[in-house]
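Renewal narrative, Specific Aim 1. Our central claim is that a sequence can be written position by position from structural information alone. The example that follows is taken directly from our test logs and has not been curated for this report. It begins with the C-alpha cells describing the chain, in the order in which they were read.
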C-alpha cells in the first residue's frame, strides 16, 4: 500500500467514525450533534504525522495486518485531536489550523445570542473539554478493534503516552503560573513528556508492536521518538512567535499574550533587552506593537539565536540516535529525512 493510499484508508476510518457519532448524537440534542460535527471538522486539515509514523514503521518491520495498523493510526489521530482540544481550553487559544477552535466556536454561538462573555467562555470551555474527553475515549475504543494478541500492548502504549503527556502539560501550566522555575533543562524535559511521547515515540512503538518487532525495537523507537519530538517542539515554539501565521494557522502573538514559558523565554530571562519589556509579556491586552517589542527583545537578547542553534544541535543528535540504531534501513533513512524536515519546517 502506498503512503497516499494508507493515508486515504485512515481518513476513511475517521470519516466512518464521525458519521456514526453524528448520526447517534442527532436525536439526543441539537448542540450535541453540533459538537460532533465540529469535532469531525477539527480533525481535518492536519498533517497526519502520527498515522504516517505508525503505518510506515509497521510496514518497515514487515507487518502483515494492515487493517489493524490503519485502525490504530486513526486512533492516534483522534488522540492527537483530543489533546489539542484540551490544550486550546487551557491556553485559551481561539484559532488553530486557520479557523476558530471548537471552544471558541461554541463561545461565539452564545455570545451572538446576547449572553454575557463569562457565560460564553464557560460554554465554550465546557464544550472543548467534553469534546476532548470524547475523543480520548474513542481512541481507546478504536484500539479495542485490533486483533487480541496486540490489543493490550497498544492500550499500554497509549496509556503510558497520556500519563507522560499529563505530566508535561501540568509542568507547562506550572511554568506559566510561576509555580515552577522554567529553567532550560526543565523546559526540555517538559517537551519530552508533553509532546515527544504521544506524538512521536508512541506511534513509532505502536507500529512496531503491531508488526511484532519486539522489546529492543520498541526501546530504540522510544529514544528516536523522544529526540524527534523535542526537535519538533523547539521549532514549533520558534514558529509560534516568529513564524508566518498564514502558513502555520496559529497566531504569532498568542504565546506572548499568554506568557507562555518556552525555551525562547527561558534563554531571554535576565538579559537586559528582555528585562526592559518583560512587563508586556503575559499581558492579556497585548497589542501588535507590544508583541513586536517583545520579538525584538527576544532577538536582541540572543534568545532566538540560542534556540535556532539548539534546534541544529538536536537535529544532529536525533540523526545520530537514528543512525546508531538497528532499525530497518529504509525506516532509518525516512526518520533522518523527517529530522531534517522538522528542523526546517515553516508550518
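The sequence written for that structure reads:
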Amino acid at each position: 500500500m502506498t503512503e497516499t493510499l494508507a493515508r486515504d484508508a485512515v481518513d476513511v476510518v475517521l470519516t466512518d467514525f464521525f458519521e456514526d457519532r453524528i448520526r447517534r448524537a442527532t436525536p439526543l440534542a441539537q448542540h450535541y450533534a453540533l459538537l460532533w460535527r465540529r469535532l469531525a471538522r477539527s480533525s481535518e486539515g492536519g498533517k497526519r504525522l502520527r498515522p504516517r509514523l505508525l503505518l510506515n514503521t509497521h510496514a518497515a518491520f514487515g507487518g502483515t495486518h494492515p487493517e489493524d495498523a490503519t485502525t490504530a493510526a486513526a486512533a492516534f489521530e483522534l488522540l492527537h485531536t483530543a489533546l489539542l482540544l484540551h490544550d486550546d481550553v487551557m491556553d485559551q487559544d481561539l484559532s488553530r489550523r486557520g479557523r476558530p477552535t471548537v471552544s471558541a466556536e461554541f463561545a461565539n454561538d452564545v455570545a451572538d445570542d446576547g449572553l454575557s462573555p463569562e457565560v460564553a467562555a464557560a460554554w465554550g470551555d465546557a464544550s472543548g473539554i467534553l469534546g476532548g474527553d470524547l475523543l480520548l475515549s474513542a481512541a481507546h475504543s478504536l484500539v479495542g478493534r485490533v486483533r487480541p494478541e496486540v490489543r493490550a500492548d497498544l492500550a499500554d502504549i497509549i496509556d503510558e503516552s497520556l500519563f507522560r503527556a499529563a505530566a508535561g502539560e501540568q509542568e507547562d501550566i506550572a511554568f506559566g503560573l510561576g509555580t515552577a522555575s522554567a529553567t532550560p533543562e526543565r523546559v526540555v524535559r517538559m517537551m519530552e513528556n508533553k509532546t515527544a511521547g504521544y506524538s512521536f515515540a508512541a506511534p513509532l512503538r505502536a507500529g512496531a508492536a503491531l508488526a511484532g518487532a519486539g522489546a529492543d525495537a520498541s526501546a530504540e523507537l522510544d529514544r528516536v521518538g523522544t529526540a524527534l519530538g523535542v526537535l519538533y517542539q523547539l521549532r514549533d515554539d520558534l514558529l509560534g512567535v516568529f513564524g508566518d501565521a498564514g502558513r502555520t494557522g496559529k497566531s504569532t502573538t498568542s504565546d506572548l499574550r499568554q506568557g507562555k514559558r518556552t525555551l525562547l523565554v527561558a534563554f531571554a530571562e535576565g538579559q537586559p533587552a528582555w528585562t526592559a519589556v518583560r512587563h508586556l509579556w503575559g499581558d492579556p491586552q497585548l497589542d501588535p506593537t507590544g508583541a513586536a517589542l517583545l520579538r525584538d527583545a527576544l532577538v536582541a537578547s540572543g534568545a532566538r539565536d540560542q534556540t535556532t542553534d539548539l534546534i541544529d544541535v538536536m537535529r544532529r543528535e536525533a540523526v545520530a540516535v537514528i543512525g546508531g540504531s538497528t532499525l530497518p534501513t529504509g525506516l532509518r533513512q525516512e526518520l533522518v529525512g523527517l529530522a531534517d524536515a522538522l528542523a526546517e519546517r515553516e508550518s
